[in-house]
Structure formats: structure tokens, C-alpha cells
């Protein structure tokens, strides 16, 4: 394409437009194409570079390969406990029921998981999961998942070619960022964006759009997330009229690298603890025994001997407290560092060297071995790692119907990390890869069905011109540099909306964010449109901003502590708050200014059958008596 084409908008159309080429987007695309629809998949980064590719530990699915006692009911229970019972129970139920099929199906697409001695898919232990449950490929599971789904896409394209399809029925357009969704009459009708390499605009008409854009981690400085995670899908959905739920719940993974500064935040997989690693403070104390909360006391060992026996005899011993859900471990590390028992660089020690032999460590954790060797000059087979909490995942996201993944906007679906509800207040490790497979498939299926029942929409020149004008606005501004503004926003979030929160600080955060609003509206970009990261960030900033405001507002409103939301001034869970979802929407004034609105919405009540999977004594720790008394008296006999 010559530079002369730069001002010509590229026009495309399809039945199902999938925004995002991570696991959720690719799984949705496969399903929509299998349903006979024409599909376009858009990816902000290079194809194959999505967040999913970074996933290390594995995908949780109750296949029962390593412990035959596992089944969907146990997985459901673990997921609800991990989310502190704020989960959309129907999503958690579908997820637990369908995850095994989604994993087995991946094998039929060509995935090669690690095996047990008797040839089944191997499953590893992870925090909050009662049994070994994570199907994995060493510590590079996401890479295999993406490789497999990409291969499936290529095979579908080859099928189309062999069938003599004149048109390209399954297109992948990478290095292209969507900046607007087009809507009309309460329905989505397409999207607008730019090709990063050239700056040329692209407009795609589609009656069904699946958002699969991942998370918001780049709003924080210390994060395991890559540059793409600027909350684009969350913000696009809000602007289109959809709602976000429970944006206050952000997962700070307990173990990110803390040293050297250039790699601070990069993830240290939970598999290190799943495979025997323990956390120690600067006094050499294995401190997690001091932090087992009341609600988990029955399931976690209170002494090192029992904890260590669990690795070889899980049926007769309780789990090590290093494998508590992530929110608990992150808070414990934070407390140790605050109490002055941290390491030189402000973390704690994660020690696998003294617990497993070097060969086992290198075999089970090859990426971790190389990561520490190359980035920190630390040999994890001989010395402990220094680790600390890092912003990792957002549990909040687009409010969707559990079965169909439909948002409040007709034709707009969402799956994967960008959607909310499934994980409640805290996600268990491994439950994201299975979530994106289960709900990615459902999104593709229901988006295809919606497209079948819809007319092909038309985009007007006026709405395309308006989207182009908005995208070019930073070039006409005389404001600040986008990188400086991103730093400022990250500083506010890290300092005032981080792992431990207080009402006064959240109010301060909202005031400081409000002051940033004007500056972000006036952010400027210079240079040309081809490969211009300053311009790209200038456009991302307004998305990060709106997500940050939704998070701070919800964090201020929820004056209790639950999962990924800890209020120092409101410690402990409140059963009344367990019944509340905080729902954010966007009000738009005539002059185009946006304001986030927050409302309380009741959490749907669990069915008696699902309530019956829990002991009433356990439910009483989370629920009001009226709620848990409607349940029967404990786990059904279906389970062993
Ligand atoms: C280091 C690391 C390790 C992890 N390990 C595990 C694990 O072991 N198990 C587990 O279950 N979870 C793990 N997670 C979490 C999990 O990987 C993610 O939550 C999950 O992969 C998200 O998948 P997704 O399909 O929703 O989105 P992603 O994989 O994040 O993909 C998002 C896609 O959207 C595109 N996109 C974003 N914005 C736009 C836009 N405006 N226009 C066009 N495209 C856009 C991106 O380019 C990308 O293609 C890990 C996360 C990290 C960071």
C-alpha cells in the first residue's frame, strides 16, 4: 500500500467480528466459523502475541486424571470459595462442567499436554484447587494453547480453500487497534480502528461482535501484564452502552519478580509453589502458617510437617498454606514486608532450591529457570528467588449473560478476561485458561446464532468520519506527552488504589484522576501515523482512565474486604455486601464528556441444588442465615 492510501478508510464486512486474538478470541472465532459464519479476528499485537501465550501454570479442568475424586462439583466449590461466593454462580457452574471437554477438544486440535505415567493428561496442584487439576505443558501452557488454536484457524482456512470458497471466510488482521464500536438502535453494527504499521483506518461492519481484549494491568506500574492491556474492551463496551461489574476486584498475584528494577512485576508462576516451593521472610521463617484465615482453617495445614506430607499424600493431609488463594498470599507478603521482614529489594523469598533437586526444577519449571538466570542472574536450583505482589488480573469486567455471553448491547458479546462475574472477588490460578475456552466457545456459538438472525448492517460515512476525527484528535492537541500521563495515572493507581485500600486514599485517587481527565483529553501526539507508539498510547489513555475511575469508585463504595479488594478501614467480609454487585455504566453529556455512574445490583441467588454442595457451616461464613438456611445439609452423595 502506498502512503497515498493513508486517508482512504479500508472497508470490510463479516458476520462475526472478534476483537482480540488471545485464547478467548481464537476459540470464539473457531466456533463462529464452524457454525458457517464469515469471521474477522482483530489483534492489537502480532498474531500469536496475546496475553494467553504468557500463561505458564496451566488450565484448570476437573478431569480427575491424577486424583479420581475430582469432579465438576468440587471444582465449582473451589471456584466459589476462591471468589468468596460473589461469583456469578451460573458461570462458575458452566465453567466447571464444560472445562474438561474444552481441554480434551484441544487435544483433537493437536495440543500436546504433559502426561501422567499411565498416559493421561497430567494435572498439577495450584492454589485453592482441592485436587491436582491444571492441565499443563511444563510452564509454557499458554504457548501450546495459542499454537493449537492458531493451527486450528489455519486448518479451517485450508478447508475453505479446498471447498473453493471464493472469499476469505476467516481473516486474521493483526497489529490493528479498534478504537470505536459503531452502534444504532441499541445494537452493535461494527467497529473502527487503525493499522498500527501504517496508521491507515479500517471500518468493519458486522451484526455480531465478540470482545475478547483481555485486561487492564497497564494502569499499574508493577504488573505482569504486557503493553496491550489498557482496558480497551472494557471501555469500548461502556461507550457502546454495556455495563461493567465489580471493577474493584483486581488480582495482585503474590509472586512477581522484584529485582532488578527493569523486570519488576514479571510473573513467577504459582507452579513454583504447586511443585513444592515455600515462602520465607528475611528471618528464614516459613510465614504462611501465620496467615491462614478462619474460613480456610479446615483445609490448610497449620504445621510444616503436615504441609510437606501433603505433596505425596494429599488424601490424608491438609494443603500447605503457600497454596491458599492468591489474595490471601499477596496480603501476607505485603504484611511481612511492611513489618520489616522483607528482602533487600522489598519482597520475600520463594525457595524451591532447598526442596527439590536441580534436575526436577529444570524439568518442571524450565521457563522460570531461564527467566531468573537471564533476567536476574539467579540460579533457582541453588538459591531462593525474591518475589512480591504484582498486578495480574481483573476479576471485574463486562456484565454478560452466563449462558450466551451477551452484554446489554444487542449483538455485543464478551469472553475471557474482559468479561466479569465468573471469578467473583478473586480468580483461582488456572481458571482463566479454562474460562476463556468455555466462554470463548459459547461467545462464538451465540454470536454466530445472532448473526444468522440479523440483517447485515450498513455503516454511514458520517459515523466513520467522526470516529476518524476522534482518533486523530491527539495530533491537533497541544497538551502533554502520553507517556508522562500514563506514568501519572499508574502512580495514582499504585499509591492509592493498590493492594491495601483506605476510604480517604480512594477519595484522593478520584480527585487526582479527575484532575488527570482534562490533561488526558488534551494529550498530544506528534510525528506521522506509521508505527507511532506515542499516538497509540494517547488513544489508549482514555480507556485506562475510564477503567481506573470505575475501579476507584467501586473500591470506595464497597466498604468491606473481600478477595482482590482489601480495605484496611473495613476489614473482614460483610454478608450483606456479598449480595451486592457494583455495576458501572457511562453517562455521556451533549458535549461528549463522559462520567462513570455506579449502581448497586443484587447478586443472583444460587439454586438450592448448588447451595446443597456446601456444608451449612461453610455457607454461614459468607451468607446471611436466611440465605444459607434455604440449602440442604451438605455435599451430595454423587461425589466421593
Ligand atoms: C505471565 C502470566 C501468566 C499467566 N498464567 C496463567 C495460567 O497459568 N493459567 C491461567 O488460567 N491464567 C494465567 N494467566 C492469565 C491468563 O493468561 C489471561 O487472563 C488470559 O490469557 C486472558 O485471555 P484473553 O483471551 O481474555 O485475552 P488475551 O490473551 O489477553 O488477548 C487479548 C487480545 O486482545 C487484543 N486487543 C486488546 N485490545 C485491543 C484493541 N483495542 N483492538 C484490537 N485488539 C485488541 C490483544 O492484542 C490480544 O490479541 C497468566 C497471565 C500472565 C500475564
Automatic annotation (TrEMBL):
A single MF term (Gene Ontology): steroid dehydrogenase activity, acting on the CH-CH group of donors
Biased composition annotated in UniProt, kind: Polar residues: 630-640
Keywords attached to this entry: FAD, Flavoprotein, Oxidoreductase
Active-site annotation: 326 (proton acceptor)
Binding site for FAD: 20-25, 43-58, 232, 417, 432-433
Pfam families: FAD_binding_2, Succ_DH_flav_C
Fumarate reductase/succinate dehydrogenase flavoprotein-like C-terminal domain residues: 487-604
Domain (FAD-dependent oxidoreductase 2 FAD-binding) ranges: 15-433
Cofactor(s) in the UniProt record: FAD
Binding positions (substrate): 253, 269, 392, 427
Stretches the record annotates as Disordered: 621-640
NCBIfam families: PRK07803.1 (NF005866)
Protein name from the UniProt record: Fumarate reductase/succinate dehydrogenase flavoprotein subunit
